[in-house]
Amino acid sequence: MLRRDDDSTGDQMAEFDLAIIGGGINGTGIARDAAGRGLKVLLVEQNDLASGTSSASTKLIHGGLRYLEHGALRLVREALTEREILLRMAPHLIRPMRFVLPAQGGSRPAWMLRIGLFLYDHLGGRKLLPRTTTLDLTHHPVGAPLRRRYTGGFEYSDCVVDDSRLVVLNAVDAAERGALIRTRTRCIRAERTDEWRLALVSHGRREARTARVLINAAGPWIGTVAETVIRTPERAPVRLAKGSHVVVKKLFAHDRGYVFQGPDGRVVFALPYHRDFTLIGTTDLDFEGDLANLVPTADEITYLCNTVDLYLREVVLPVDVVWAFAGVRSLHDDGSKKAGDVTRDYVIALDHKFHTAPLLSIYGGKITTYRRLAEAALARIDDFFVAGPAWTAGAPLPGGDFAHDGLDDQVARATERWPFLGAEHARRLVGAYGTRIGHVLGDARALDDLGTRFGADLTAAEVRYLMRHEWAETADDVLWRRSKLGLAFTPGEREALAQFMSGEGARAA
Ligand code: FAD
Questions:
Q1: Mean pLDDT of successive 10-residue segments in the chain (509 residues)?
Q2: Cys-Cys link to 75, which of 214, 333, 345, 370 (CB 3.0-4.6 A)?
Q3: Ligand 1: which residues within 6 Å by Cβ?
Q4: Which CATH architecture has domain 16-52+165-237+344-394?
Q5: Ligand 1 closest atom vs CA 200
């Protein structure tokens, strides 16, 4: 890579232009963008890709209707615009969804919702998604699961995403464009001179790497990395906020999501999830504690169940929860009193002094705005390299090279080409791999050609693909981050998968 003539940074010998700490959506998004511009990129992730916050989101690609209340117009406009850009880039992972917002009195009366939704429809140059409509919930089928007191409301558009696969496919694309992606590789020390000297530990082995610019994209670990790895003198201005979700058996038969307002004004979503389930979330609490052992508390689970009970006729109890997960946002501390009031906008901080290698720190952000965040991050370090222009807006992610509304066509093609696939199996594979489904199925003529079936519709061929091309190493990588088949697996099936994977891993080593 050509470098700008800048005698303030770097000798010409660093192995990488950029080293990125963190394999969540922000780290992999930056890695992809930078690799596509011709930079030499190293990304290290201490666990699995998306094992942090980026697999624990509400899975919305949205403008964030609620952020309008905080006057965050820049963020909402950017996120609304990104919604359609991302839908075109990854139509296999991202789907439009209609959201039902029952109107009620209280702090958000119908007139206020109407104004908010009008802005929401018009701020972001909406082209593909349908606009807001008013609903008579006494007659519309989406009113049927609701308690009788909700008689009217609105229906608006946003999208839902498979968040962890979005991360993985950014990493796949980055690697195909030359980035070195190292999972289960922890950065334990970053020495700063005119370049960065990184000490990494991977599977018990230590290694050293050098880079010209370091990016701290460690999400909620940003402060820990700053203090213990980079050892910056100042404390990182970060505020951590925890959010929890629960998954229960399907609560309603239609394909819309609901947006409920909790008794304290917080917003709780209830979304159709993986055909047989409903995803309910989220809470928003200040967080201090151990990031390695994040689980929703009993109080958070009760709060979510109680909020849904205010709206749905069907009673939801904590014992109905089949899976629960929690994630932590790293927000840029703007001094707000409540976690829910802190800005969701991202902040990119560049630390660059004469004769020392630059450090870029990424605070906050949303899954929805990761692509713009990557562009903004690269613009901040533009002076240190001669790199190509921004390019990701029109470039599909791996397998996403088909029309934004072409999923059903792709499923039909898949069942024609591999007639032994059941309809649901074909839909799941197209939803995960898009036009790359053939990379998983190859020339198989019968289900048995795909090898052992571990549970649900997971076959050895798919697991091998995930191990060879998507950095899957453990059963949980496959069951919870490359897919959500964990919802359907028994403990015994999971154990058989884990044994198969350790055998395959040993053979490959
Ligand atoms: P992470 O995904 O946490 O990635 C950071 C990575 O750094 C981790 O994987 C970690 O293991 C790694 N790491 C840390 N230290 C080291 C080290 N020393 N060496 C190597 N690796 C290291 N956004 C939306 O757009 N839509 C939503 O619906 C939405 N819902 C949300 C719901 C909740 C409850 C939360 C908490 C957030 C939500 N967000 C949503 C925001 C979004 O999920 C986050 O902004 C985003 O996932 C942050 O990604 P990240 O890459 O910064 O962090």
A1: 44 87 98 98 98 97 89 91 97 98 82 92 92 96 95 96 98 98 98 97 97 98 96 88 96 97 89 97 88 93 96 96 96 75 84 91 95 97 92 97 98 98 97 98 98 97 98 98 98 98 86
A2: 345
A3: 21-27, 44-47, 51-54, 56-60, 186-187, 217-221, 225, 229, 243, 282, 327-329, 365-368
A4: 3-Layer(bba) Sandwich (3.50)
A5: 19
CA angle 184, 188, 189 (to 5 degrees): 140
- What CATH number does domain 407-508 carry, 3.40.50.2000, 2.10.77.10, 1.25.40.10, 1.10.8.870? 1.10.8.870
Q: Say if residues 261 and 223 touch (Cβ distance below 8 Å).
A: no
CATH of 96-160+239-341, one of 3.30.70.590, 3.90.1170.50, 3.30.9.10, 3.40.50.40: 3.30.9.10
Q: Report the 10 Å Cβ neighbour count for 55.
A: 24
Q: Which two tokens stand for residue 42?
A: 């190293």
The Cα–Cα gap between 298 and 240 comes to 20
- Residues, the chain, total? 509
- Closest atom of ligand 1 to 364 CA is 45
**β-pairing, 277-281 with 285-286?**
unpaired
Choice from 53, 206, 368 to test ligand 1 binding pocket (greatest atom count within 8 A of CB): 53
Residue nearest to atom 51 of ligand 1 (CA): 24
